[in-house]
Amino acid sequence: MNKNRKRKTLVPMLATVMFIVLALSGCSGGKSAGETGNGGSGKGEKVTITHYTIDSEDRTFIEKLIPDFEKEHPNIKVKIEKAPYEQFDSKLQTLIAGDKSPDVTSHYGYGGFAEYYNKDMLLDLTDIIKEDGFKAADYSISEDLMKIYTVKDHTYGIPVNMYVTLMLYNKDMFDAAGLPYPPSDYEDKSWTFDKMVEAAKKMTVVSDDVAKTQYGVDFTWAERDMRPLYFGAQPYSEDTWTNGGVPSATHFDSPEVIAAYNKLFGLINTEKVSPSTEWSKSVAGQNGDPFVAGKIGMSVTGSWSLAGANDFPFKIGVAAVPWNGDNKVRSTLFVDPLLILKGSKHPKEAFEWIKFLLKNDIQEKSIDLSGGTPPVSTKAAETYYKHFDGIDPADIKNVYEGGVKYGFESYNHLVTNYSQINDMFINEMQPIETGHKTVEEVMPIIQKKITEIIKR
Amino acid sequence: MSTIPSTGPHSPSSKVRRRRKFDAVRVMSFISLVIITFLMLLPLFFMVSTSLKSKREMLKFPPTFLPETWQWSNYKDIFDTLQFGTLYGNSLLIGGLTVVGTLISSSLAAYGFARYRGKGKNIWFMLLLSTMMLPYPAIMIPQFILFSKMNWIDTFLPLIVPAFFGSAYNIFLLRQFFTTLPDELFDAGRIDGCGEFRMWLKIALPLSGPALATVAIFAFIYSWNDLLTPVLYLSSSEKFTLPVGMASLTSSRFRIPPWHLLMVASVLAMVPIVTLFAIAQKRFVEGIVLTGIK
């Protein structure tokens, strides 16, 4: 009986489902056709531009700025399209290939500016800038920063946010070890790399009890391939920075680079004041930061770590990245530009939107809306320095100004095929960290592989 | 009843002894099963426990076993942080229709492969199976171009309609099951004037409860967990699915992810899967009982 009833209901059920699907398809198909009709007809003067960004609060806050912009520009409508971080690049590539290219975006995924530039995804903004009369100085953007996204005198991107490298330190751990706090002044030459190691030794506790283990310093300065620069060694040839990120030569097996890596990995393996990646993962999770768990005395990291500062369960301070001989580069800059994609159908309107986002008052407003994203405008920066509870604004200002003075733009934005390079570095350097291979053994392999990746 | 006490004085004691021995083994295996169950449930326990912790407590190391303060408001906050209800509804709708689509299309195709005789049938079947070797990224862009030309971007259609065109793995699974059904049943149906479609509906499907339940679970879990396809095709946030919303919680490289809220989302996301399993498991047993032939 039961079975029969079930059989009887099956047919109408299938029919209903089919009907729903058909109705659904008819409905939505019509709607989207209507939408494109409006957008592409050109009858009305209104155009819609799309800004593609990451789906996280510190990026999507721009949605809140749209009403003001649309009031100023009644003929331009702005639509925000978002994707999670991991899928950012895949979606962008697919949208471009499917002729649904967004108008404005930035290199928020794994691929950097150089990768986009070499894939010919970016629109040359030089003419638009000339026609518009745009001057970086009007927006308090320094010319040095404008140069980062200029290739052979053609501008491809306009900076909007800027992160520097800084040292975050756990005041509670410093107090417990009876150590003085490190200085935030970059010109204080008494604050050296060796001094940092000395302080780190006093804070490091390696114990069988996981709860007691803590390390003095986590020196995650820039991405792995850039770290030799801190020790004054140049792994990529000079032309990389002027020709769009394709190095004519790399020097990853040079004695200077090898010495630099030996000093760095020495922190983990010989000095034993830094944690291994495994330990960090076990304490803080896959992409987590053990500093957040209160297990690291000093963390050299990007200034984005400040954004979470108000939630840390301990007191923190900011300090300068220590001096190391006469090194000129002590900070990695992470300048995010706004880019117009080649597939954009309304580049001029997109440029209006970019200019709007760069205005001083909007940059100031953005700091709060985003929860502490650092503006590129030097004027708005003053507001940014004051944004963090419990950290002296003067220290943040010192660290920012020093960071810019001794800064170099991050390689991940400037070298082509960077996502592949970075993956390769992580994989190849793993055995050094675990002590299974030496730097001398690994670097020639990296040098060979990187040459292949760059040629791709 | 009265025969039991009359079996004599020796037998009860020997019975008891035997039962005791038997019990010891049972108790041992019971204890070890309980221990293993607890081990298996430990991650689940941490998921639920973290979902009730405050943001500050979640960062503590070593982590606390139970929340110091039970923050039930997390379960309300998730609805404010994400448009959780909308995302949940979207995922359920897409998942449900995917299951229906997969069941209809895959069982029809599988029925054909199992019961029809035709030239080159095996070659077609091999061809079908070979599509399993194509990774999604390989067809991602062509498929996107196709659907974008059909004006299906930012609708649920690219996520649902493909399910109505069969999936190789499920067709394979069902075909294997259908071939085990005895020919006699279909012969009898044919004698009584049953058409092929009717035989699919009235003989093959009702006898395949367990296989259909398996396919339904596979299809639902696949759709429920799928992240890349909705990310590619959906652009308005009110159309996002649950995995897209959950992924965006950890999207910021610059923040500490709100793990406690993510755990709330995970706990709630688990509910339909567990329910489906409970329902399908019943069908599973029922299917074996009803077939009676296997």
Summarize the structure.
The complex is a heterodimer of chains A (about 450) and B (about 290). Chain A is an alpha/beta fold and about 450 residues long.
What is the fold's blueprint, element by element?
The complex is a heterodimer of chains A (456) and B (294).
Chain A: H1 2-41, E1 47-54, H2 57-60, H3 66-72, E2 76-83, H4 88-97, E3 104-105, H5 113-118, H6 126-132, H7 143-148, E4 150-151, E5 154-155, E6 157-163, E7 165-170, H8 171-177, H9 193-203, E8 215-219, H10 255-269, H11 277-284, E9 296-302, E10 316-319, E11 331-340, H12 347-358, H13 360-370, H14 378-385, H15 393-405, E12 407-409, H16 411-414, H17 418-433, H18 439-455
Parallel strand pairs in A: 1-2, 8-9, 11-12
Antiparallel strand pairs in A: 3-11, 4-5, 6-11, 7-9, 7-10
Helix pairs in contact in A: 13-14, 17-18
Chain B: H1 10-50, H2 55-58, H3 74-81, H4 84-115, H5 121-130, H6 136-149, H7 157-160, H8 168-179, H9 183-191, H10 196-204, H11 209-225, H12 228-233, H13 242-249, H14 259-291
Would you write up a description of this structure?
Chain B: This is Carbohydrate ABC transporter membrane protein 2, CUT1 family. The complex is a heterodimer of chains A (456) and B (294). With 456 residues, chain A is an alpha/beta fold. Chain A has 18 helices and twelve strands. Chain A folds into two domains: 47-162 and 335-385, Periplasmic binding protein-like II (D-Maltodextrin-Binding Protein, domain 2, 3-Layer(aba) Sandwich), CATH 3.40.190.10; 165-334 and 393-455, D-Maltodextrin-Binding Protein, domain 2, CATH 3.40.190.10. In chain A, strand 4 (150-151) and strand 5 (154-155) form a beta hairpin. In chain A, helix 17 (418-433) packs antiparallel against helix 18. Chain A starts with a helix and ends with a helix. Residues 1-7 and 21-43 of chain A have low confidence and may be disordered. Chain B has a single domain (78-291), classed as MetI-like fold (Orthogonal Bundle). Chain B contains 14 helices and no strands. In chain B, helix 3 crosses helix 14 and helix 4 (84-115) crosses helix 11 (209-225). Chain B is flat, with a radius of gyration of 26 Å. At the A-B interface, helix 1, helix 2, strand 2 and helix 4 of A face helix 4, helix 6, helix 12 and helix 13 of B.
